[in-house]
Amino acid sequence: MTKDVITNMKAHMEKSVEALRREYQKVRTGRANLGLLDDIRIDYYGTPSPLSQVATLSVPEPRTILLQPWETKMISVIEKAIMNANLGITPANDGKVIRLNLPALTEERRKDIVKQLKKMAEEAKVAVRNIRREAIDELKKLEKNKKISEDDQKRAEKEVQDLTNSYVAKIDEVLAHKEKEVMEV
Q: 98: burial class by Cβ within 10 Å (0-12, 13-18, 19+)?
């Protein structure tokens, strides 16, 4: 019984860490990253489609993203979608491909991004702590209903706390890695 609670909790905490990683992919660093374009949808003959389904995406240089639409008439539609996404990047096209040149980040902008990253990490930690609280409540309920002994409950609560600490440490690790990437000139 306690194993089910802990397994369930572990799965939810893992999802929180993965969600943080996905959010970090969307954060603009000084380096070109295709994750920036993940949320952009293009109106492709009336169907909202991800950019990757209407163009070939590549990173030929560290600060350049290259989009090669499969149909040249889609260039203006793609440019408009990128402008509307408010990425702070102006697309440039030569009639065949679209280039997104990422400007170098200023020291001040890097510090702002790090603040944003820390805030996102804190939100992930809050999510992990909420999952811990739910797991402990579930364990208390099991003990109250005499499905597990008080000793089992205490043991399981300690395991829950240890797991929580390890996931908080994982979040700190992900943050430190992304922070290093942002501050790299």
A: buried
